[in-house]
Write a structure and sequence with these properties.
The chain is an all-alpha fold. The protein has one domain (about 15-160). The protein is built from five helices and no strands. The longest helix has about 35 residues, at about 50-85.
């Protein structure tokens, strides 16, 4: 149903620009929404002191991240480039520069730190237990980084919609 509806709506789009924009928005919803969801759930279970569930959330993040969030972020960027070119936006526009720089920081952080750290947290939880000091320390540090990354991603969404002049 979803695929059929998406194909029908995209087929009826007035131009390729709207198709790229729609797919760009879907990729943003997947990446930003997933990040926001995992971060929020992580914060909730951290505050509850539920290390076992928090470890399970981390394991889920380690599984879904490279399979959904990383590809969505990559597709988001590629479609963003296509939109800039197709829409004749040009380069060097403040709000685009902010979005591209923010995307680079968030994407790199996800690949270099978040993904590998989720794997390390899962390994520590399996080896020492989810309540072990080193596991808890890693989880707290990761949640701090994720709070910052989530804030950055939400700011990018606001930036892309508001298109402010700096």
């Amino acid at each position: 149903m979803l695929a059929g509806g998406a194909i029908a709506l995209l087929w009826l789009a007035p131009s390729s620009y709207q198709i790229y924009l729609a797919l760009h928005a879907v990729a943003a919803v997947l990446w930003v929404g997933g990040d926001l969801t995992l971060t929020t759930v992580g914060i909730v279970f951290e505050r509850r002191g539920d290390a076992e569930t928090l470890a399970a959330v981390g394991k889920l993040g380690a599984f879904i991240g490279p399979r959904v969030y990383t590809p969505a972020a990559f597709v988001l960027f590629c479609l963003g480039i296509a939109l800039i070119e197709k829409g004749n936006w040009g380069w060097g526009i403040d709000w685009l520069d902010f979005a591209i720089a923010g995307w680079g920081v968030a994407f790199t952080n996800g690949l270099v730190y978040v993904g590998p750290e989720l794997v390390r947290i899962d390994e520590d939880a399996q080896k020492y237990g989810p309540e072990a000091p080193q596991t808890v320390r890693r989880v707290r540090r990761l949640l701090t980084v994720l709070r910052l990354q989530t804030a950055l991603l939400v700011l990018i969404v606001i930036d892309m919609v508001a298109k402010p002049n700096f």
